[in-house]
Amino acid sequence: MARSVVLNQSPRCPRCQLPPRWCICEGISDVACPVKVEVLMHHMEQWRPSSTGHLIKRVMPAADVHLYRRERPLERAEIVRPDRTLWILHPLGRPVSSEVPPENLQVLLLDGTWRQAGDMMRAVDSWGRRVSLPMTGESRYWLRTQAGEGKFCTAEALIFLLGALGLEEASAGLRLQFELHVYAGLCARGAKAKAAEYLADSSVRAAFPELLEKLSRRPARDG
To answer: What separation, in Å, do the N-terminal and C-terminal C-alpha atoms of the chain show?
Structure first.
């Protein structure tokens, strides 16, 4: 039976937010990106170890995370940089264009459930340009059930955006870190068969053979 790290209050690594048994900090590496990334995270999301908003901050140190509470709205000047063009990712936005160089771009990602993201969008809609992405295929975010076909998590949205901007190295680097995060999260829940199925179609297997070997040999009493 799958276990909940949150409900069981298991000890967690302060960096990767996984139980010590499944700590993946050895595999974490920075992803360089000229785009200034901002994550607007719903306050209900901040304690969830599965959050990909936290993942973005871990692997992209220049990114910033801002907590959203309806009763304490953020000011535009707290987030928006006057020297950059702000894009807010949303399925109902305009298509991505190439008119803004990545180094002049600031992107705001909404991190929460689809209902929470809708609430956050209403609060920030006037801050910048609402932009949509050509996201196709199935989500690889197996830690949560997506709200429907063509729905993707926060990190996946950023992966698609980087690819659309021609930042292939950054896109691939973030995808690798994202899939390592998902794989370890499945293992931490005790979903061994699902984790093995996920790994079979992931580049994580080739990228981190030594780490995966260590994870397979760690005794269960470690966490």
So the answer is: 16
Phi, psi of 105 (to 5 degrees): -110, 140
Beta bridge partner(s), residue 110: 40
Tokens read off for 154: 């926060």
109-132: per-residue pLDDT in tens? 999 988 899 999 999 999 999 999
| Phi, psi angle pair for 58, to nearest 5° | -65, -40
Q: Other C-beta atoms within 10 Å of 85: how many?
A: 15
Q: Which residue has the tokens 């990114």?
A: 63
Judged on CB neighbours under 10 Å (0-12, 13-18, 19+), 172 is: middle
Taking alpha carbons only, the member of 125, 155, 116, 143 closest to residue 37 is 155
- Give the pTM: 0.90
Beta bridge pairs of residue 65: 39
Confidence band for 106, pLDDT divided at 50, 70 and 90:
very high
Question: What is the rounded CA–CA span in Å between residue 217 and residue 169?
Answer: 31
